[in-house]
Design a protein that fits this description.
Number of helices of chain B: 20
Shape of chain A: globular
Radius of gyration of chain A: 15 Å
Largest interface: A-B, 59 and 64 residues
CATH superfamily of chain A: Lumazine/riboflavin synthase
Number of domains of chain A: 1
Structural class of chain B: alpha/beta
CATH topology of chain A: Rossmann fold
Strand content of chain A: 15-25%
Mean pLDDT of chain A: 89
Mean pLDDT of chain B: 92
Number of strands of chain B: 38
CATH architecture of chain A: 3-Layer(aba) Sandwich
CATH architecture of the largest domain in chain B: 3-Layer(bba) Sandwich
Helix content of chain A: 25-40%
Oligomer: heterodimer
Low-confidence stretches of chain A: 1-11
Strand content of chain B: 15-25%
Largest sheet of chain B: 5 strands, parallel
Low-confidence stretches of chain B: 650-669
Largest sheet of chain A: 4 strands, parallel
Structural class of chain A: alpha/beta
CATH class of the largest domain in chain B: Alpha Beta
Helix content of chain B: 25-40%
Number of helices of chain A: 4
CATH class of chain A: Alpha Beta
Shape of chain B: globular
Number of domains of chain B: 6
Strand order of the largest sheet of chain B: 10-7-6-18-31
Chain lengths: 139, 732
């Protein structure tokens, strides 16, 4: 098996890394699967306790190693950890975008939206729309 | 780095293997350098497979395992327990979700699903390779519980906790127990008086010497953590001499010359400055509003030995292993002018009507006028699409209709009009709605975009409503009293409790549980639980249910004497840390404080308090903070795993994986239950009841598994029995 890092030949859809959260958005993404709601197989998910815990360096790592975009399925106001979660996550996006500009990466390659624990269709819509946006980017 | 990893890839019957080439993946990862065992299994969660995994771990000396199956929400702990049974640290286990996040959403593209599954599994292997053996943190638990709020929820929880043998501190902000329920006349469906319920619970509590009740008490300071909270409370003075003669106290109440605002009766009347909320209120000691009596020296001089106006507040420190918050709710207070509230004299709220009914036993009189007709306007302060309170308050429809029935029973000749958006008398409460309709209560449905309007026409109060049940015809209702059916809102002082205990507050301003279904009474603060309406609108039954759920959780916690908490917490690299304090600033739980590391000032994490949320990690300018199991190595190696290129079948991109030959069983051996079913089948034709009788398995289980066995060609249908009731099955 090859272990070289490159774009998968299996799909032409933009490759999206989703940061979800264990208690809020990940159950919503699971529900999309449960209901056989289809989205692109080029979407990969990493689940964390809280969207305010995403390090900008992880976002940079993903974009520099072949992902076309990073989508943060944020807890927003439903966060069980902090009522300031939306602000914290927003700061992470802004910090990441500054770092991305320094590396000539289009800041639109990171995106954030609140996603709830039953947001199956909204997740599918987000992936479809973000996929289209990423496909149109030429940096 | 782990070097002896076991990988188990689940067919999940066919839920995964119908779309993902599980067998191919099993073979593929077998060739990985650090993978010792790689298997595809029919049901990873089956007992037989769990036993096989334990044997594999022990025989092959595996140092980590990856199970690729369903969502971790279902079986994370199943496989952590497998690891533990085999002597492997449960932290050296990673579950990869190739069902909900791969085979099911990509069932339309099997080859791409297989490629994605390969990436997910590779990421899981990478992650587990960096996993560390973490030990749960053991904390000693004091066998005492603090319950905050002595409403029906808090009192019931206190009794249950005391019955289990724990020491219980029950504190109540008001000077009398009972909370909102004491303001209710009768309760559906038992028609018990709220005050009787309060008295019953209070007397029950008094039977337990291990319950200490503090009224007029507020929380001032909280320190410590799960197992050992120190809570400082302030107990306000009642200004009554504890040795005073009861008759003298009664005389002082009767003769008190000063009146003050009556909170219990929602300001509809005034009460004496020496008062009880109501005559039977408990504890049976009145309270003095000392400030109101400062100019009544003749009176205070007369009762100098009864009153103790120099009494001072006491501060006490309580030690509790766990805390249950049952602080209740506030009534929504309409804004001035909202449906004429405070601007039209005969507009009141539903809680005010309930107090009026209690104060008027014979005739319902308000502002000197006998009330013969009432118009209820529902959903005031609830379900506001443009306002703050977007939620439904759940109990108001029921309370209103129950009040309407009580009105007719108590005052006979009275007409009620109900202007509603939707009637939500769920469950048994629907019977009450039917009864109300039968007795002639009139219902009009309005929509939020066309709200009722309350106006004054001469001496009459008119409510105009577009009734959607009669083609939006505008109705004019003349009512003696307009009643605004107000919902529940979070208590005004909820933010104080939230700040003291660090309990997160939701957008609706009520306290947030961790998960509405899976952890409905737990908060992210270990050892702090919530119950009753401080969590959101509930009726009395639901409030008690949730507080008892919290009490049960606490009982289980206190019984053990020690508790193991998750080791997923923040940790600081002291070499990198320069103590800028940013991590401490963003931590809502005060889990991070400045500490000395040798002579260096660095951030120190209190692991008993840390929730492992990770909010501190991204703000560190030195990247000195990591969360266990979410380290840079683990996350970045997962990203690398996703990006690897997999040559699944060497057939080129876009080619569809061949569907397995029909009837082929893609597994090494049948699950235990299949083997049991096959052993219970004769070589002839068998019906389900015959198999059940031979195996002693439950009928539903046999039916369920036969369907799958049939799908995989292990058994085949063989016609129907003589009564055409059951299918025959035979072994293939």
């Amino acid at each position: 098996m090859s272990t070289t890092i490159n774009q998968s030949p299996a799909t032409k859809s933009p490759k999206i890394l989703v940061f979800s959260t264990d208690k809020i958005s990940d159950p919503g993404i699971d529900q999309a699967g449960l209901r056989k709601i289809h989205y692109a197989p080029s979407v990969y998910v990493i689940s964390l306790p809280c969207s305010s815990g995403i390090k900008p360096k992880w976002i940079l790592h993903a974009l520099e190693h072949g992902f076309d975009g990073v989508f943060i399925a944020a807890d927003g106001h439903e966060c069980s950890y902090s009522s300031r979660c939306a602000d914290h996550t927003n700061t992470i996006v802004e910090t990441s975008q500054v770092l991305m500009k320094e590396k000539n990466i289009n800041p639109r390659r990171v995106r954030m939206a609140a996603l709830c624990s039953v947001c199956a269709e909204p997740f599918m819509n987000h992936m479809e729309n973000y996929g289209k946006i990423l496909a149109s980017l030429e940096d | 780095m782990k070097q002896r990893i076991g990988v188990y890839i689940c067919h999940c019957g066919g839920n995964i293997s119908d779309y993902v080439d599980v067998e191919e993946l099993g073979k593929m990862f077998h060739h990985e350098e650090n993978v010792v065992v790689s298997k595809d299994v029919m049901f990873a969660c089956a007992d037989s497979n769990q036993k096989d995994m334990v044997a594999d771990i022990q025989a092959n000396k595996l140092d980590a395992i990856v199970v690729c199956s369903c969502s971790p929400k279902l079986h994370l702990h199943t496989f952590k327990n497998v690891a533990a049974r085999a002597g492997l640290n449960p932290s050296n286990y990673v579950q990869v979700n190739i069902r909900e996040q791969c085979s099911w959403p990509h069932s339309d593209r099997p080859r791409e699903a297989t490629v994605k599954a390969a990436g997910l599994i590779r990421a899981g292997i990478n992650r587990v390779a960096y996993s560390e053996s973490l030990e749960n943190i053991e904390l000693t638990v004091k066998k005492s519980a603090l319950v905050i709020g002595a409403g029906v929820s808090g009192m019931k929880a206190a009794i249950d906790l005391a019955r289990s043998g724990s020491e219980v501190f029950l504190i109540e902000k008001d000077f009398f127990v009972g909370g909102r329920i004491a303001q209710k006349q009768t309760l559906f469906p038992t028609n018990q008086n709220g005050k009787e319920v309060v008295a019953f619970l209070y007397n029950e509590m008094k039977k337990f010497p291990n319950i200490s009740i503090f009224t007029g008490a507020t929380v001032e300071k909280v320190s410590g953590s799960l197992g050992n909270f120190t809570v400082d409370i302030k107990v306000k003075p009642r200004y009554i001499n504890p040795n005073a003669d009861k008759k003298a106290v009664k005389r002082a109440m009767d003769e008190c010359p000063v009146s003050v605002h009556d909170d219990f009766n929602l300001g509809l009347v005034e009460r004496k400055a020496i008062y009880k909320n109501y005559p039977e209120a408990l504890p049976d000691v009145p309270v003095v509003v000392a400030e109101a009596l400062k100019d009544a020296q003749d009176f205070t001089g007369k009762f100098a030995s009864t009153l103790n106006l120099n009494e001072e507040a006491q501060t006490l420190s309580l030690i509790a292993g766990s805390v249950l918050v049952t602080t209740g709710y506030d009534h929504y207070q309409p804004k001035e002018g909202e449906y004429g509230y405070k601007t039209i004299s005969n507009v009141v709220t539903l809680p005010e009507l309930n107090r009026l009914m209690e104060m008027n036993p014979e005739k319902l009189v308000y502002n000197g006028k006998q009330i013969k007709s009432l118009a209820f306007i529902y959903c005031v302060g609830s379900r506001q699409t443009k306002g703050d309170n977007k939620y439904c308050s759940r109990q108001c429809c029921t309370t209103t209709i129950h009040t309407s029935l009580q009105l007719k029973e108590k005052y006979k000749d009275i007409q009620t009009y109900h202007l509603y958006r939707d009637i939500r008398t769920y469950g048994k409460q629907e019977l009450m709605y039917a009864e109300s309709s039968k007795q002639g209560d009139l219902y009009f449905k309005y929509e939020e975009k066309e709200m009722p309007v309350v106006s004054v026409d001469g001496k009459s109060t008119i409510v105009k409503v577009k009734d959607y049940l009669t083609a939006k015809k505008e109705m004019e209702i003349e009512a003696d009293l307009v009643v605004l059916v107000t919902g529940m809102v979070a208590r005004e002082d909820a933010t104080t409790i939230s700040e003291l205990f660090k309990i997160p507050i939701g957008r609706d301003k009520f306290f947030n549980e961790i998960h509405p279904k899976l952890k409905p009474v737990e908060t992210v603060i270990k050892g702090v639980y919530i119950g009753g309406t401080c969590q959101g609108p509930k009726n009395v039954s639901e409030s008690v249910q949730s507080s008892l759920a919290g009490a049960s959780k606490i009982t289980a916690l206190l019984k053990s004497g020690t508790v193991m908490v998750d080791p997923i917490t923040a940790r600081v690299d002291a070499d990198k840390c320069t103590w800028c304090g940013k991590c401490s600033d963003v931590c809502d739980y005060t889990a991070i404080k400045e500490v000395l590391f040798g002579e260096k000032h660095v951030a120190g994490v209190n692991k008993a308090v840390c929730t492992g949320c990770g909010i501190c990690a991204p703000v560190c300018p030195e990247n000195a903070i990591e969360i266990a199991q979410y380290t840079d190595n683990e996350i970045e190696s997962m990203i690398d795993g996703f990006m690897m290129d997999f040559d699944i079948k060497e057939k080129g991109a876009g080619e569809v994986v061949e569907v397995e030959e029909e009837g082929k069983v893609g597994m090494k051996e049948y699950p235990l239950v299949w083997r049991e079913i096959l052993a219970g089948m004769t070589d002839e034709k068998n019906t389900i009841p015959e198999i059940v009788a031979n195996t002693k398995l439950a009928g539903e289980l046999v039916t369920f598994h036969l369907m799958t066995m049939n799908r995989y060609g292990v058994v085949v249908p063989a016609g129907m029995d003589a009564k055409e009731t059951y299918y025959y099955y035979k072994k293939k």
